[in-house]
């Protein structure tokens, strides 16, 4: 029931609103619970409390999904605004007043898949720092760092090679990715989708094919991750990808499928030795993101 007008209106708990937004963005109580560091049962209790206060249902639930009701969609806009105002107010008193522009480099794969989420969260906690992003191949990003055209950069490289002078954030397997239910891996010669020269994934994949004596042809070449995914999903080719990049519409192909093991790659980060406070803040945020990924498997 709506609160009578002659009584003070209840106050909405920001922690509850944060949970509500997390569920609306992930479509899952379980995933949202991990994001807000609560148990699924605690999250359910928070939403029940919210619905009791408002006298309206904010989610429609079934066995497979969670969707916003019409009232929930209206609440979502207000919730995001209230949380943004809270971050702005708190940052004025708690977060050091760091102001500046940071020039960040990233390979295309992480620039497309990871950075948007990382920088969105960073902007919320550091609204006075602007981050300008350059997407390029790792060898070119290393060159830009040497020319002082970047303040810090992410780089991918073979796990057998050095981190190009930087720290290693993550090491994981490279696997062959194919379309779910596809047959590209059965064709002869094997159609592969690759990046341009200089890509650590390309080098490892071609070395593995050569080691096994597998005939192949480059059926699709693109400098962008989106192009690689398109070739895989259309079953035009198979492609080497980090294991964490596989989606529900892809499958990992291994020796039982006639595909050789590729090995691992590493993601490194180089920070300018004379890094400013804003640059250090971005670097610390990236480190924390990858530490969290190692624990949760999610960015």
UniProtKB/TrEMBL annotation:
Domain HTH lysR-type: 12-69
Keywords: DNA-binding, Transcription, Transcription regulation
Recorded GO MF terms: DNA binding; DNA-binding transcription factor activity
Tagged with keyword Cell wall biogenesis/degradation: no
Gene3D superfamilies: Periplasmic binding protein-like II (3.40.190.10), Winged helix-like DNA-binding domain superfamily/Winged helix DNA-binding domain (1.10.10.10)
Family: Belongs to the LysR transcriptional regulatory family.
Protein name as annotated: LysR family transcriptional regulator
């Amino acid at each position: 029931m709506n609160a009578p007008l002659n009584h003070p209106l209840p106050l909405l708990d920001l922690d509850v609103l944060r949970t509500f937004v997390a569920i609306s963005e992930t479509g899952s109580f379980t995933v949202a619970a991990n994001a807000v560091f609560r148990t699924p049962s605690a999250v359910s209790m928070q939403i029940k409390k919210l619905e009791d206060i408002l006298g309206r249902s904010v989610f429609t639930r079934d066995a497979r999904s969670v969707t916003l009701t019409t009232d929930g969609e209206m609440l979502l806009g207000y919730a995001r605004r209230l949380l943004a105002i809270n971050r702005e107010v708190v940052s004025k008193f708690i977060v050091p007043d760091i102001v500046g522009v940071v020039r960040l480099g990233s390979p295309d794969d992480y620039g497309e898949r990871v950075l948007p989420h990382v920088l969105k969260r960073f902007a919320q906690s550091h609204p006075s720092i602007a981050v300008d992003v350059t997407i390029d191949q790792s060898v070119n990003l290393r060159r830009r760092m040497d020319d002082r055209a970047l303040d810090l950069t992410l780089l991918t490289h073979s796990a057998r090679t050095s981190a190009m002078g930087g720290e290693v954030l993550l090491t994981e397997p490279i696997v062959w990715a194919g379309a779910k239910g596809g047959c590209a891996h059965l064709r002869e010669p094997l159609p592969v989708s690759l990046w341009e020269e200089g890509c650590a994934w390309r080098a490892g994949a071609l070395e593995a094919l050569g080691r096994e004596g597998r005939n192949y042809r480059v059926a699709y070449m693109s400098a962008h991750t989106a192009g690689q995914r398109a070739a895989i999903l259309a079953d035009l080719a198979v492609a080497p990808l980090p294991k964490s990049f596989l989606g529900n519409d892809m499958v990992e192909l291994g020796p039982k499928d006639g595909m050789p093991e590729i090995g691992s790659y590493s993601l490194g980060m180089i920070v300018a030795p004379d890094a400013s406070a804003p640059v250090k803040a971005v670097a610390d945020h990236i480190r924390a993101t990858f530490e969290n990924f190692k624990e949760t498997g999610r960015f």
